Amino acid sequence: MELIQLHQDFAAEIRGISLIDVVTDESAYEAVRAAFESHSVLVFRSQLISDEVQALFSRAFGPLEITKPGAVGTGTVYAHITNIGPDGNTVEPDAQLAKVVAANQLWHTDSSFKQRPALASMLGARIVPRSDSETQFVSTRAAWARLCESDQEKLANVIVEHNYLYSRDKIDKNMVSDEERALLPSVHRRLTWLNPANGQRSLYLASHAGRIEGMDEDRAKSMLKDLMAHCTDTPQVYRHFWRAGDAVLWDNRATMHRGIPWPSHEPRLSIRTTISACERDGLSSVLVN
Ligand code: OGA
Ligand code: MN
C-alpha cells in the first residue's frame, strides 16, 4: 500500500489496495484502518464500485446507518446524493432533491444530529458531471491543534446542541416534513471528540450545531460561527475533484466537508454509506450523559 499525501495536515490517496481487498483480506483492512485513523480522508481512485462492494467495504469499519425517511434510498444502507429525479432527468432548482444538494453545501459532518453519531462516511461516484465536481474537506483535528492551550482548555468540554433543523432551516424553513421532525429531536454533544486510537482530539462541529449549553443564543451563534471560520479557512481545505471510479472515505469525528455547486443541468449521482460510531471509536468522549 502506498499513501500519497493530499494536504499538509491530512487526506491521502491510497494506492495498491482496492475496496474489495479490504473486504476479503483482514491485513488490507488493518492497513486502511490505520491510514484512516491518521489521515482522516482516504481517496480511492479507479475503483470498480458496485453498491454491494461499497456496503461490504463500509461494514468492515462498523455497523451501517439506515437512510432516514425523506432521503432517496430511505430504508436501505445507501443514501443517494443526486440531482437526478425519479423520471431520470435533472431536477429544477426548487425541487426537494436540489435543496438536499444545497444543504450538503454547508460545512458539516454527517449525522452529528442523530442519536448515534457517525464514525465515517464513504461517498462513491456513480455519475460524474462533465464540468468540475468538487467536494471540500477540512481537518477539525488540525483546527484543534491550531488553538492555543487556554482556548483548548475552555472548549474541550463545552456542550453543543445539534439539530437537523439548524442546517435545513438555512436552506428552506419548510424543507423538513413533520415525520422527519418527530424522528430527530435535538442531541447534545461535546465540542471535541477524542480518538482512542491515537489520543488526538478534534473539534466536533457542523452546520447542524445551533446552541451551546449555558450560553445565550446570540453569543453561542457567534462563537460557533467563529469556530467554523477557524476550521474552514482556505489554506486548510483539501479540494477533491471527482472522477469516475472515485470512492472517498472520511472520518466524521475529525473532519468537516461540503459539496460545491456544479451546473444544475448536468446529472450527478453519488452514493453514500455511513458507518455508525461505536465505543472503540471514542464515542463516549463526545456523548453527554
Ligand atoms: C455527503 C455530502 C457532498 C457532495 O454525501 O455527505 O455532504 O459533494 N456530499 O456530494
Ligand atoms: Mn455530508
How is the topology of this model organized?
Blueprint: E1 2-5, E2 12-15, H1 19-24, H2 26-39, E3 41-44, H3 51-59, E4 79-82, H4 96-103, E5 118-127, E6 134-139, H5 140-145, H6 149-155, E7 159-162, H7 164-171, H8 178-183, E8 187-190, E9 192-195, E10 200-203, E11 209-212, H9 217-232, E12 237-241, E13 247-251, E14 255-259, E15 269-276, H10 283-286
Parallel strand pairs: 2-3
Antiparallel strand pairs: 1-2, 3-13, 4-15, 5-13, 5-15, 6-12, 6-14, 7-8, 7-11, 9-10
Helix pairs in contact: 4-7
Can you walk through the features of this model?
- The protein has 289 residues and is of the alpha+beta class.
- The chain has one domain (2-285): 4-Layer Sandwich (Double-stranded beta-helix).
- It is 29% helix and 26% strand.
- The protein has helices at residues 19-24, 26-39, 51-59, 96-103, 140-145, 149-155, 164-171, 178-183, 217-232, 283-286, and strands at 2-5, 12-15, 41-44, 79-82, 118-127, 134-139, 159-162, 187-190, 192-195, 200-203, 209-212, 237-241, 247-251, 255-259, 269-276.
- The radius of gyration is 18 Å and the shape is globular.
- It starts with a strand and ends with a helix.
- The model has no long low-confidence stretch (mean pLDDT 96).
- Bound molecules: N-oxalylglycine and manganese (II) ion.
- Manganese (II) ion binds at residues 104, 108, 110, 257.
